[in-house]
Amino acid sequence: MQHKVDKKRYAVKIVRLCDRPDEEQKVMREVEALARLDHPNIVRYYDSWKSRAPPNWQQISPWKQLPSSYSMSYPSGRRTGETESQNAAPDASATLSPYISSNSSESGPTASEAAVVEYSTVDVLHGDAPETEKRKSLNPLRLDPEPPVCLCIKTELCERETLKAWLRAHKEDRKRKEVTAWFVEILKGVMYIHCEGLIHRDLKPSNIFFSLSGRKIKIGDFGLVTTSQVDLGEAASHKSNYVGTSYYISPEQNKKENYGREVDIYALGITFFEMNYPFITDMEKDKVLTALRNDGIFPKHFKDHLYHEANIIKWMLTVDPQKRPSAEEVFSSETMKRLQRSSNKSKATIPLL
Questions:
Q1: Residue-level pLDDT at 178
Q2: Is the pLDDT of residue 246 over 50?
Q3: Confidence check: pLDDT of 149 > 90
Q4: Which among 146, 200, 304, 341 has the fewest CB atoms less than 10 Å away?
């Protein structure tokens, strides 16, 4: 989306609001969280508004749903109504990735060609929704008798490529120095989120973005954000809403226990491991991460090549949340300082083990 006056390009996440108050509350919680956060390593929020979709809304572009001071464009080859959710089940946040194009391929055009609008025809759904409702919602051509109300969230535009996509595309040329620098930026963003009394609850590579200039890390997708302590009732509900396999959920979440910001540290530990261990296949990823999560077992030779990284990851994946470090403790630790000194001197790539 490009503003006609300031000529700047923005991302717009368009979320169809369903008739379930709890789901609308979840979307509004994301807006409220984004509005209060202002940090260089967090996707910046600008504005939001509700709007009813026009007649035949599933067959036309969302251009007319925006204020008249904006114009919009798609990258070449993009088809109206095409979303990545048509080829995949909804994830934990149950909405499209909000800060990149909704093209089904994350490794598409360069940043300058990136789509500047999100258009979701999918209801906000979770694992407990009826299967028939899921099938209907995933059909982009199904016409509803009444156009739905949508929430439009305008944010900073980031590159199309997420950290997840970057990791897939760079298995043999990951620079240790670059990966460490990105990890530090993620830590800074998480430190700020926690200082604001919030828990992200959905940290993972697909929710970590890159700025259009300077390739700085930006944490996004605050659809599951909550306050700094979650009681048993909400913990059980949140656990039941996960769809598919999640490598990033902490042991205390799995047990449906009370939990706090320590869950973000656990998720970040898994993410940091992924950044330092290129997976060749999905089967390998499942095997390695399962062993790491369940038994604390690192792949052979990982500690030999990446000693400081292994110590930090092991610390962050401590099963007992009370013994797990805070983001600030990781950031200011001697191990982290040694890692930064070591990686800054290194021009080596991360090895395929």
A1: 96
A2: yes
A3: no
A4: 146
Catalytic residue among 202, 264, 304, 320: 202
Between CA 78 and CA 105 the distance in angstroms is 11
Of the candidates 245, 164, 193, the one whose C-alpha atom is nearest the C-alpha of residue 41 is 193
Q: Could you give the 3-state DSSP secondary structure of residue 273?
A: helix
CB atoms near residue 117 (< 10 Å): 24
Q: Tell me the pTM.
A: 0.73
Query: In the chain, what are the domain boundaries?
Result: 8-156, 163-345
202: annotated active-site residue: yes
CA distance 166 to 145: 41
Bridging pattern class, strands 226-227 and 217-219: unpaired
pLDDT value of position 127 = 32
pLDDT digits (tens, 9 = 90+) for 205-224: 999 999 998 889 999 988 78
Q: Between residues 30 and 262, which one has the greater pLDDT? A: 262
C-alpha distances (whole Å) from 113 to each of 33, 75, 116 are 29, 6, 9
- Contact between 110 and 5 under an 8 Å Cβ cutoff? The reply is no
Please report the pLDDT score of residue 69 as a whole number: 44
**Quick one: which of 155, 147, 163, 143 has its CA closest to 208?**
163
Report the DSSP beta bridge partners of residue 2: 9, 71
- Structural contact between residues 75 and 114, judged by C-beta atoms closer than 8 angstroms: yes
> How would you label 271-293 residue by residue, b for 16+ Cβ within 10 Å and e otherwise?
bbbbbbbbbeeeeeeeebbeebb
Work out the angle at residue 239's Cα, subtended by the Cα atoms of residues 101 and 35, and round it to the nearest 5 degrees.
Answer: 45
Extract the tokens encoding 47. Answer: 């504005």
Residue 104 DSSP symbol: S
**Residue 166 near residue 215 (C-beta atoms within 8 A):** no
Q: Looking at domain 163-345, which CATH architecture does it have? A: Orthogonal Bundle (1.10)
Rounded to whole angstroms, the Cα distance separating 9 from 13 reads 13
Q: Which residues of 132-159 are buried (b: 16+ CB within 10 A; e: fewer)?
A: eebeebbebeeeeeebbebbbbbbbbbb
Q: What are the contacts of 28-37 at 24+ separation with CB within 8 A?
A: 28/151, 29/222, 29/223, 29/225, 29/226, 30/153, 30/221, 30/222, 30/223, 30/225, 31/151, 31/153, 33/198, 33/222, 33/225, 34/153, 34/155, 34/222, 36/196, 37/192, 37/193, 37/196, 37/198, 37/222
